[in-house]
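Shape matters. As here.
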Amino acid sequence: MSIRGLKKKQPKTFKVRIITVDAEMEFSCEMKWKGKDLFDLVCRALGLRETWFFGLQYTIKGMCTWLKMDKKVLDQEIPKEDPVSFHFLAKFYPEKVEEELLQEITQHLFFLQVKKQILDEEIYCSPEATVLLASYAVQAKYGDYDPNFHEPGFLAHDELLPKRVLRQYQLTAEMWEEKITAWYAEHRGIARDEAEMNYLKIAQDLEMYGVNYFPIAQNKNHTDLLLGVDAKGIHIYSINNRFSPNKSFEWSSIRNISCSEKELTIKPLDKKAEVFKFFSSQLKVNKLIFQLCIGNHDLFMRRRKVDSIEIQQMKAQAREEKARKKMENQRLAREKQLREEAERAKEELERRLFQLEDEARQANEALLRSQEAAELLAEKAQIAEEEAKLLAQNAAEAEQERQRLEITALKSKEEKRLMEQKMREAELIAVKLVKESDRRAKEAEHLKQDLHEAREAERKAKQKLLDITRLNYPHMAKYPQYSPGDSRDANFDKGSIKLDLKDIDLKRLSFEIERERLDYLENSRKFEDRLKELKSEIHALKLEEKQAGLYS
């Protein structure tokens, strides 16, 4: 068989992009495939068995439409694009998520879709409930809270709260994170699937959960009502209130629903009750409402019948899987607990080891310090011993100096006493010398006076003698050769000798007096010098005495 023949036998395909809440996939779809063929391919790729909740949605001319399972894909009014995009979403919602959602993949897809609807404000949620739901979403994503790992700011890039709530309360991102983390820390030990299930159990109690809203009118001219279809029935709302329905028709109370062009009729089971008719803006909207009503009614009736063998097997497998996961989670929890205990024990041992090492280090440092202190003390002791010796030596020297000073002081006192005595003696001598000098001066004055009187008497005697001689011997001047005159001259010469002798005695006496006066002056000068020396010695002794007193 040729390659060309093989190519001719291969069916024609077109590309399809399937967009889930958290991923995208591309498939090659055969031209003849129906919607169910593509849907089953996607379910097999996802490993999904609870297929009755989901559908493939696409948007055409601004209106969201579900792909019909019994028609060919290309025969339906799908977008003309390559690849053709479909959104794999939950089309119908369970009444009780914990009982009806059996597979973990089903829970996860519902969790992601409901979370997105809450964040996009398609489902209203109070601020308090949004914080609690956000904490379960964080638990599902990050696992157990660990303050060492989940530091402040770890939720900065996660979208966890609706923008309406963020605008309503003027809180910073750090404040919101603190509130969410406070709840998140309390979910310790909850596995991912449990956290997602807890999220859905809270969300299913919200008024807008699982409700598809459509604008309707009770007549052909006004669109003043909203029709909501969910797992429990059909509800009629006012245009501005999507929380509390004005009227509700439970599936168990509806006998028939009919659709004709833009008109939709709801016939209650009670034949006496009023038939409700309403009109939609487009035939497509009317058909979409009719499809959702049929699908939700079928699921409602299916829940109240005995489960099929497939459902029973799935529930049994789900129970076994839950039991297995529970045991696995318990085992993991025990292992985690043991690991945490081991880590804590390890940390405690490491802390203890570090503490012991620190204590050993401190002990070594203390030992080194004690050794250094001992060496320093030994050195100080040696220095102190040397200082003691030096002090003893200085004390001995000081004692010797004190004794010397005492001796010196005694000597100084004795010398002072002697000097004072000498001074007193010198003063007495000086007084005596002064008196003697006065006496000698008086005597000298008397002698001078006597000498002056003697000289005056001598002069007078000589004059008298001369006068007598001239009177008695006037011829002697004329007759010098007269012999009698020689004898008289001889007598006169004798008298002259006597006078000369007397004159010599007077000169000697005068000389002695002068010599005594000079000696007295010399002695006085020496005595004054001695007095000055004594005063200097006394002054030096006083200074030494003062210095000795200061030193003591």
Summary: The first helix runs from residue 3 to 9. Residues 354-470 form one domain. The CA atoms of residues 18 and 24 lie 6 Å apart.
